[in-house]
Queue: 2 jobs
Job 1
Amino acid sequence: MDPLSASGILAQFLLRFLPVWVALALTFGLSIPFKRRLGLYGKLFDSPVGMIGFFLVMFWVYTAVFASLIVTHDPLDQIARLKNAWPGAAVPPGEQGYPWYIFGGDSLARDVFSRMVKGAQLVLVIAPAATAVAYTVGITLGLPAGYYGGRSDGVLTFLANLVLAFPVILLFYLLVTPAIRQTGLPMWFAGFMFLIPIAFVVVLINSRFHTQPPKRNLYAGIALVIGLWLYAGAAFDADPLGIVSLDANKLNIFVAVVFVNSPTVFRIVRGLTLDIKSRDYVAAAQTRGEGPWYIMMWEILPNARGPLIVDFCLRIGYTTILLGTLGFFGLGFSPESPDWGSTINAGRKLLSIYPYPAFVPALALMSMVLGLNLLADGLREESLRD
Amino acid sequence: MLKFLVRRLALMLLTALCLTFVVFALTNLHPNLVKLAKTQASARMTDDQVVNWLQLNGYSDPLLVRYGEWLGVVPGWTGTNPETGKPMGRCVNPNAPTAPAPRYCGVVQGDWGTSTVFKQPVSQVVGVRLAATGWLMLWVLIVMIPTSLVIGILAGMREGSRLDRVLSTVSIASTATPEYVSGVVLIVLFGSTVMGFTPLFKHWGLLHEGTLLKGSAASALDGLTFDNFALPVATIALYGIGYIARMTRASMTEVMTAQYIRTARLKGVSFAQVVLRHALRNALIAPFTVIMLQIPWLLNGVVITETLFNYKGFGWALVSAAEGNDIELLLGCSVVAVVIVLLTQLISDIGYVYLNPRIRLS
């Protein structure tokens, strides 16, 4: 095979992403006609900025979903003659599989394109999940802190400010190390931290349905079973069904990222609660005799959703940046991991001579975070409109 | 005002104490100490030798006692060197072991300890590296503040205009680009021999050798030039510009809808005059706070950028200390970091009150 020309590279690139284009076309084709009936999600399609952001985000989501269809080579396979190869380099005759390295080869002769795609999968699993856990932690602590105030609020705020006073990178260097993993600290930390989402859901259900015990028991029971199953798998790698598992490295990363993110969420939720708790509908609920957790979970939280949804989008982007930072400093991820931060780190040594291995994941990370930021901006604009 | 300052300073002290204790506890976990022993003495030590080494060098006392030693409220450990029979200890000068040594030597006494990676006093390492980073920060601020304010004001003076849309998108793009990405992109564009502008300029005959700008700032320690410093400065500034510009824009759009601006316009004052003389002063109060609060964030960028561009400043020292588990240097670095964070917060609070007479400190 001959090496690809510039237009050939573009054509092959577009062709490989065919499943993503089809899925994107379906998403947009189905959403736009019904946008009036889809609430905030539908309104997104009224704002060009929001639509571009949504496009970029969904592009990476579908890339992660269809990653095994898109990759051209195994992300760990090496073809020695394609070490530091230029984009579009042809695989030498005799080798099996796809005939080109679309975006060239890295310093270990692996396919840059496939590693970028596999990296998307890794980022898109960890970043939203870690952000969601950070959110439940921040909400569960921030709501009572803002609602009750007093000494516990003072202590929690001090702790949040303490974590925020740490330079993030120092925190990562202290928390994401083999030494820490040896002590088992991340596991116990996760054991505590992952209980909070379960407690959150159970309290949410209980505060709503505690007057109807059969219904409450059913819903809380379902939530507990699912929650504890995920808990066993995620925190202790002990899922009886063997579906959910998180190895020690990833657990360590996950815990560190949640730990860095939750104090900010806590501060946002606390501030919103302080603002909302003086509203009339909260006073009405208090007069009705509703319990404090009902007021927090079902009166205050739904009314704080606008800023929280916007911040959630931004925060997934920020978490992606944090994961990249971890990879960039070679912390946590195994050296051959295809995540974007690690590949940028591996490629930066030869950056001025062989730019592609670092350039491609850098652009990928940038486009995804940009998409999330634009999406958040579109959501903010549309939710402020009415 | 005085009461406020005293309370804030006390809180600052408490935060610094808690923070350094956490750093101390985490760096003194047993596996970390084993690593330290192996890097300091020899990599092929047996477990017994490691325990011995730790005991001999004062690492085996209880954690709280040793934290007290570092603080200078507990007497430093002492012992004798089994090989030479001379006294050893925290406060003993290793070059003159028989000289009389003070009982306490910690932060309270002004002794920040010795770096195990650089083999120098911590205060000296931190001082030298902080000065190098100071230059970097100075240029970042010189570039970042005017650029972001101009972008924010231009975008905010006519909300919804095409200029506003373009500039807002640019600011979003810049906040979405972390330093390790923009650094890579900038090096590829300006500092690569095979891609970006350098081959183009060579083709046009404008450049004969080397690259347009240097992709490494290692030579900047001997002398700052545009060549070796432009890319790191741009890398850090780029991430901050977007955020400050967006805050400035928000503040500017709010001011532009105020009654007194409309009055001024109706009086017949020209638009440029309204922006420059009426709106600007009030619109710049919020960005001042944002800029001050952005400085601790820059610290993060500094660590990444110094690693990427191989500039041996504070961030580089922090990374070296963390990689070598250099306990006392890490503690020194975290104290510097926490002081920067809390001091900028304090300045932003006080400055806000000073700039905006409608608000009082409570």
Note: Residues 122-157 of chain B form the longest helix (36 residues).
Job 2
Amino acid sequence: MGKVKLKYFSRIRETIGKTSELVEIKSTNIQDLIEELQAMGEQYSVLKGRDFAVYSAVDQNIVTDVKTSIEGATEIAFFPPMTGG
Amino acid sequence: MFNKIIVAVQKSDFDLNSELETLKLNTEKAGAVVIFVGKVRDLDDDNLRYLEIESFEDLAKSQIKEICDDAANKWDLEFILVKHRFGRLKINDNIVLVITSSKHRKNAYEASEFIMEYLKSNVPFWKKEVADKTQKWVENS
């Protein structure tokens, strides 16, 4: 699919050990992307959301369905439940 | 078209008096102003050293703007201001400011609560409490 900028926040950033990275990906939806990333290293298994819910934003739009298409996306962010206010 | 919405995601503190002056210049028909300030509090069972607030700045700003637009559609308001801070904050430092203004108080009160409820779990901020004995990411209760 091409190169995509991945961004990580909060607990996910700490577990993966990076704030962002540019990655060549093949996946066309979030679910497949998580599988693809996990093959790059065990630290990415945090994205599976076993310990807490994992949200994602595709080009700065929050998505709730892991089947959401990421074709043509330039930035994908992963983050845990938000705690503002 | 309602365009009296001010949104900011910032590291610096906000000044209540200057925000009120801005509001007054823009709301001559409003008789009610509701101000909500969220601030850093100490913990019950540990001593907080600081609160680290992480943000996805651009997305946070657009999410806040969206909820302000929703509030402006639901209630008859004259003015909305939301400023949310990020970075390292100490006890009693300000975190968030929500000002709503309307002709009469009911709309301003309800809109303020609506915006704050949304901010709690729909805007990309994350708080980490760093205390003497522990450090942990805050989870929504």
Note: Chain B has one domain: 5-137.
